[in-house]
Each structure stands twice: as C-alpha cells, then as structure tokens.
Queue: 4 jobs
Job 1
Amino acid sequence: MKVIIYDLDHQYDEMLLSKCDRALAADGKYAPCQGCFGCWTKHPAECFMKDKLRQVCRLVGHADELVIVTKNLYGGYSAAVKNVLDRSIGTSTPFSTYRGRLMHHTLRYGKHDLWKVIVYGEITEAEKATFRDLAKCNAVNDGYARCEVVFLEDLAELEGSL
C-alpha cells in the first residue's frame, strides 16, 4: 500500500489521491502528540485522542511505500508533517532490537520498502544534507529498506516526482 502524507493546500488533494492508496493531509486539524505512550502500551497502535489521526499508526504501519511531501523547515519536516509523524510512534513497540548496528524499537507491522521525502521551498546545501540524514535515520528507525529524498525547485514538478 502506498501512503502519502502532505502539507500542501487542498488544490493538490485530487492529484495526490490518484497517485496512492491513501493520502493524509497534514492540515493541522488535529491535536499534537501528548507523549502518553498509550499507543505503545494501553491500546496498541491507536491514539486515545479522537481526531483524524487516531488510526495514523495503522495507516503508516501498513504502508509499503510512504511518501512525505513537506515544505523545508531548516532542513527538516514542516511542523504539520512532524506532528503527524510524532503521532505515528505506535508503529513500533516499547521493546528494543538492533537495526543498522544501532538500537531501535521493534516494529509492530514488520519491514517496509520505501520511505520517500519530497521537499519543496527554499533550501540551502547544508539543509539538503541535514534532510538526507534525517530521512535516512527515519527510514531505518521505521523499518524501511530504501530511502529517497527529492528536492523540488517548483511544485509544478510534484506530479512527476510521485
């Protein structure tokens, strides 16, 4: 299953939905993660907050291919996208294992294929390097075999990048 998480305005909704199985708009119409870890222990992979991100752990956990479309924010995800990723912590468990010679949490849903990040907005070379490192670490942590980062000069290039 291909899932797209994006922070673009609604004019892109239809085009993005045509390119994947599920698309999730990081539109800020949800609460930020409270850090209670209930999605790890009390009710696995389900957030206690009753908003549109309640099932985000299951959505992200079942994605073979996760595509994140985000505006650059100093070499990192936009605040809205970061909020969605924070709320998906329940894709892992509180138990630990080694992956990539580093300690990580065990995966609740197993391994995945592709973690792809499409970045738009002004970005320096140093921010590009930071984004590549961040995406690679996120991919390993969430059990993705491959990681790609694409930097767009113009959002008109988006459809061809998906």
Note: The first helix runs from residue 13 to 17.
Job 2
Amino acid sequence: MTAQDLLNLTSNDLIAKIQANDGLNNFAIERSKFEGWLKVELINILINNNLDALPEIDRIDVTFEKTAIELKTLNTSYKCHSVKKKTRPITKNIDGVITDIHKLNLNRKYKEKFVYFLVFPLPQTATRFWVNHISKIKTRVAEFKSVDFTFNNNIPGKIYCCKIYPKKKKFYDN
C-alpha cells in the first residue's frame, strides 16, 4: 500500500465525517486537538473497507494486517477567519510527528508504516510559513501525500499521509 492508496481509501469518508460533525467546528474555532476522535473514525473507515483495524496494538495508534499507523492532529497559530487567536507550538507539533516517524522506523514487526495527520487551521495565507515546517517531515519519509479539507464552518485544513522508509534510515536525525 502506498501513501496515496491509504489517503484514497480514507480521505473522502474522513472529510465527510469532519464536515458532518458540528462539534468539530468548536475544536477548530478553539484550535483544540481531536486525535481520539480521529482514531475512532479512521478505524471505522478501515473496518468498513474490510480491514481488521485495531487500536493501540504494540503502542501504535492503528494497526491492521502488517500495517502500522501513527496519528496526530496539529493545531496552528496562523490567522484564520472565525478562529480564536491563540498561540500554538507548531514546531513542537512537527517534532511530535518526527518522533512518530522515528518510532515506526525502528519497529520491525510491521511491513508498512505510516504517519497520518491533520493540520488546522491552515489558510492559504500561511503557505509560505507552513512550507518551512512541513519540509522537516518531507525529508524523513519515503512518500508524502496530502489533501485539503474544510470543517463545515469553512475553516481550512489538510490531511497528510506519509509512508515511512521500509529500511531503517537516519532521516529523523536531520
């Protein structure tokens, strides 16, 4: 499975669930993370696609067959309509994804390994700043794919799916 395959399998259903959930609007407005919700919904989507997805096996967020997925929700401080002005540790959030990449890279039990994360708010005006942050992740993964989405109150975000190198590489040390 490629990163694009996993994104194709999950993103349409996940975006529909995000847009149908009025409660998530408040998370976006408050810049609050919702990783637990993401884990439940992603597992449900995978099960509906005939994959035996399970939570918290081997201290990994989601597993099925010989596949491991670590999840994150990353909140940003970027100015965005309808979102409360708050400072969020973007660099620390990126470091959390890099830590997950390292953790999966060292794991030999799973053949295919991914980090799957949502970033919000992510307005177009923030692109030039965001590129610097996301490049730290791009250099550490074999595949890097994304798709845009909006909450149903039009707060923009992005879903990222990255496949980890199949062999141990030290890209996490950059």
Note: DSSP finds five helices and six strands in the chain.
Job 3
Amino acid sequence: MKILLSILVLLAPFNFAAFAWPPIQAEHPKEETSVNDRKIEVFQHGVQPEWEYQAPQQDTFIVMHPKIARDNAALYVVLHSAGHDVFSCVNCTKTVGNHDIYRSPDNHYALYLDCRKNKGDWWWGGMHRGDKELTMKNSGGETKPVEKRVMATVAWAIKNYKIDPNRVYLSGNSMGGSGTLGIGLRHGDVFAAIKANVPAGVEHAFQRMFLPPNKIPDGVIFPDPPLCIDYSGHNDRWSEGHDLFSKAMNDRNYAFLCYWGPFGHANNSANIKKTNDLIDSFDWLSVRKDQPYPVFANASCNSKLPWPDNLNSKEAGQLNAFFRWKNFKDTAEILEMSLFLVTVNDLDTKFEIPDFATSDVTLRRLQHFKLKPGEWFKWEFGSAKGESKVDALGLIIIPGLKITDARTILRIRAKKS
C-alpha cells in the first residue's frame, strides 16, 4: 500500500499534462459573470510539453466579450503588472482611471492572462538594470515558456471566438508593459500593434529582438514587427534605457511612437495627459496586420530625449507623434500610400505641431508589392522623385522625405531593366 501511495505521489504532479489543453471553463472566485455589462468567462489549463516548463503548473485566463457579440471582432490582449493577477486586473476595468490601459473597447473581445500564480513565471525579462534583487529571468534570445504559453493562449482565443486575425492587439502596464515590448515585438505575424504603459524595463525587448549592440543571429528572420507605442515617465526609474531603446528602434527601422513626461510610474490616463496629452492621440487599434505601414526614422520633428542626462526635466516630449498615412494600392506592380502630418484641426494638443518635417521612410508589411534585396525601384512623392535599391534585408527605404499636412501620395514601382 505504501509503495502504491508513493507511486501516486510521484505521478500526481504530472496529472496536469493530461488536462493541459484545451482550456476548461472554471468558476469565477467571486461568481462574477459580467463586468461593465460585458460577459466574462474564466478558463484554466495545465502546460503543454512544447512550452518546455521545468515543472507542471495550472494557469488561469479570462475572456471578456464585446457588449454586442459578433464574429470577426478584434482582440485586445492584456498583460497585467507585477502588483496584479488576472482577477484584480479585470477588476481594475470597473473604474475609469484605474490602470486605464487594461480597459478594452466595448466592441472588442479582451483576453486577460495571468503570470502571478506560479512563482517565477513572469513575462518580463532581462531584468531591469537598477533592481539588483531580481535574478535574470526570461533573458536571452530564445523563446521562454511563459511567452509560448501567452502565444498559444492568444491563438486559442482567435480560433474559438472567431476573431479577425488581422486585428489582434497587445497591451500592458509596468511588468506587463515590459512583456508587451519583449513578447509583442517578436510576433508581428500575430499582433497588428502593441502599446506599453510605463514598461518596467526595456531589457526584455533588447534581448528578444537582438537590438544593438546585439546582432540578429544568422538565419533568424523576424516578421515585420507590430507598430509599437510606448509612454514612460522619464522620472520613473523603470524607464532607464529609453535612450538606447529609442535609438535601436530608429536604427532598425521599426515603427515606434514614444511619449514621455515627468508623470512617474503612472497608470491613470487622465492624469498622464495633464503632462503629455499625446498618449492616446494615435488610433493604434485601426492598424491592421494585413496592410502596409510606413516607418518614420530620424524625423526632424522629434523632441530631444531626456534620457539619460536630463531626468529632472519638467518638459514632455514625443517621437513620431504627428505622422499619419493612408493606404491606397498594394499590388504586384505598384504601391501607393499618402503620408502627411496631423493639423491643429485633427489633434487638440499642447504641443506645437510643425508645418513640415523631414523623415526617412521605410515600408513594412507589404502584402503584394514584393522586391528582392538589390533590386531597383523608382519612387515619387509630390514633386520629389528618385531611384534606389532594396536593402540587404529586403526593405524599401527612402531618405529625407519632406512631409507636410498635404496628403501627398508616395508611389513606388519596380524599375524595369
């Protein structure tokens, strides 16, 4: 009998594997079935072998339905902060001003994941250089178990709720903001755009994307990353390194909108907007994964970064906040999109909107207009025109375009030999 019990004890930890997937619906601990007049469902699951966890565990996530249920809705994915779990995260959405980035639009599905229950299973990585008590977790370029779990859960939600796969968005606050950058940037094949509120460190993103001084390993090819929005308080110690992160994103020609100000480690959007009213000015939830987007780099209208030497500044600032575009054509023969600046009629802000700005423009997520590295192309932008070669990474880059509030068409064709 003792031998049988010993065998059962040894086998017990592995029972989760038998119930790992698909997730099973569970009861809410407070028996809640809706939040803000939106249906919620709680799910639990074990681990899958391919996630490569070192020990079995059970995880919980919550799906919040749109107010009016429908197929082909968008999905808003949320990664909570270190001070929350999945239940307290969803509870925050009941009150405007309480971690506002957790609140999804009423016409979206929302997926809330948890990384609090299982010790060490957090979705930030690196760790932050200023916190000596934390050990290196989720560091390095390899995909870690927590990221595999997150992406598997997102894929499950897309399938089971008939989500529009071109409108999946990732967001997070603090630790969840670090996870949003570190996990989201690697998965441009899933996320259309990502948004991080006061991310608790950029080290995870540096390692997952092999940002300089790291180099992308030979043979590793990333999908075009999602458009990335980051707003951080430069007087927040967790924001350290944003100068290096901003430069790396710029030099890699990754789409990056950054807003900052002396608002600390804040999560109340109304309070943050008293300092920087741009944080919600770009409609990131209109970006689609199946449409091209331009990347603006080395823009003349960018504010001077306060990192690392001016952290006591009272000034707010921005990178790439005023650029907009509209897609027109993306065929095998031609690409057309308009590039322009917002105006005071489009955007009510304390910032001075420039009359014009120069920027290098890189085109990403091209669906049909495909050129190989080294091939020549011709471009036109208003009265400006030129010829250039596709770079070694297959990117079409046009330097020094002068962009105004006029909706000027950028037109690109292959140069015929």
Note: The first strand starts at residue 24 and ends at 26.
Job 4
Amino acid sequence: MPTDQVGEPGKKGRWNYHPELPLADKSIFAWPPDPGFLARWFWRNWLSLSERVLLLLVSVAAWYWLYPDLDDARVLAFGWVFQTWIVNMGLLLAVAGSLHYYFYIRCAQGSKLKFDHRDMASGSRSFAFRNQVHDNMFWSLGSGVFFWTAFQVITLWAMANGYLPTTSFADNPIWFLGFFVLVPIWSAFHFYWVHRLLHVPFFYRHVHSLHHRNVNVGPWSGASMHPVEHLLYFTSVMIHLVAASHPLHVIYNLHYQALGAAMTHTGYEDLLIKDRRRLALGTFYHQLHHRFFECNYGNQEMPWDRWFGTFHDGSDEATRMIRERKQRMHAG
C-alpha cells in the first residue's frame, strides 16, 4: 500500500493511502475522444456492480414498494408527504449508517485504501456536540432529509398534475433508459457550478464552511451541509422541469444526490471483500478538495477543473500551485 509524499511530507498531514500519482485525466469529455476509454467507462459504471447501478436498484425498489403512488401526489396531503419523509430518512440511515458501521465501528477493512490516517474527530469544538459523526448526522438527517423530501414532494406533485413533461418506457424506451445514464453526468455539471458559487468568500464563510469542517471525511459527511447549501445542492432536480421524465428519474436523481454523497465520502477508495476491490466508493480527486479546499471543485468526469486551472493531480507541484492560488485569493 503506497504512502503519501504529497503536501506535507513528514507531518501529520501525510496520507495513509493514495492511488498512483499524478492523477490521470479521466474526463469523458477529454478531446479527442477515446472510444476504448468511453467503452470501459460505460462498462465500469453501468454493466458491472457500481454505485450508479446500486442506487438505480434502490430507486426502483423504493418507487414500487416504499414511496406513495403518483396518484396520491395529486393533492398535497400530510399522509403521503410524511411517508416520503420517513422513507428518505430510513434510506439515509441505512446507507450512511451501514457504511459507517462497516468502516468505522466494525473496522472491517482496517486502514486498507483509507485516504486519511486519522479517525473521526471527537472532543473538537469545531463540531456540534463536539463530535464529528454526531454533527454530521444532525445536519444530514435534519436539514438534508428535509430539503431532499421537499424537492421530491414538489416535483412529483407537479408531475402528477401534468405541470411537467413526462415520458415512460412505452413512450420512448431509448430516452427512458438513456436518461438514467445522463442523470449522473448532469449532476456532476450542476455540482461543479453550485460548488464554485459556494466557494465565493461570502457563501463559503457563512454556508459552505460547515461542510468543510470535514477535512477527514466519513459516510455521514457527504450530506452534512448548511440548509442554504442543501437548498442549492438539490436544485439539480430542476432538470425535470424541462426534460421529459418519469417519477423513477426524479427519485434516482435525488438518491444519487443524497445517498451517493454518503457513498463517495466514505474516506475509502473501494470496498474490499477478501482483499478484492468489489465496489468503488470515494475518490482521491475529491479527497484532495477536502484537504486543500480551493481545487477539484467538480469530479473527474467533468473537464472544468482542468480547463479553469483548479485541477490538483496529487503532486507536490500541484500542491504548491494551489497554495499560491489560495494566497492570491486571500490577498484579494
């Protein structure tokens, strides 16, 4: 297992694990396009066990067996709204809770593929209740589930009443299936620009800094945000105002935002079973953002960080460049 020589060698900032550095350009929008890379990307994300496939399966199961019927959504009523909130609360508890239990309570994987060598913080005044996990759970289950449910309820109510363009597998099977592939790509596009807005000094100081308390992340860190950030974060669902969709697309979009955040913030690169990588989880790309803040605002699928000079590839040179950029920003 490689050890870190990035950023602050010889100090407590050293990584416990990192992938091969410097990070490669894995954007699906890289030019000229590489058909082989795109085929492998599609296979890895959609034709094998992946975060996207698992979340789609959860979305289908929840739509058919847990959430209220679309007919019920025609009238805003306490019953089906409360049912939606309960389901969302249960799903986040199940996903983030099981990941936290596996990695941080049972310690089933030890430190293998864990980016940061530190444990979750306790006794720190930086967090509510002086406990990182309790702080993260408070914001995720309180504000996070509230805004997730609010956007889901309003969108499905509008869809049930014919205010939004809709489609089905019978109407257009290619678009119906293709939209599931497009949702994570749209989410990545939306996330980058909302994230850049949140790093404007005013918004960072008053809103986004709450999420960035988590320099060392865990499953509960993903959806731990200020209410204003939750409001902005879940606006990705507004794509359904203009793109013909099905309730399943809406639910998958929101699950990808909420449950996917727990999966990508585990602090581990992969889930190991019998020392074999079975499920990709966190990315070192985003872990670098939590360590150095003003870099890697998006994810590796989007080219924006490379185009706008905010890409940190994990190298010492990139660390120096990012620190110089931060100094210029603070000086300004």
Note: The longest strand covers residues 276-280.
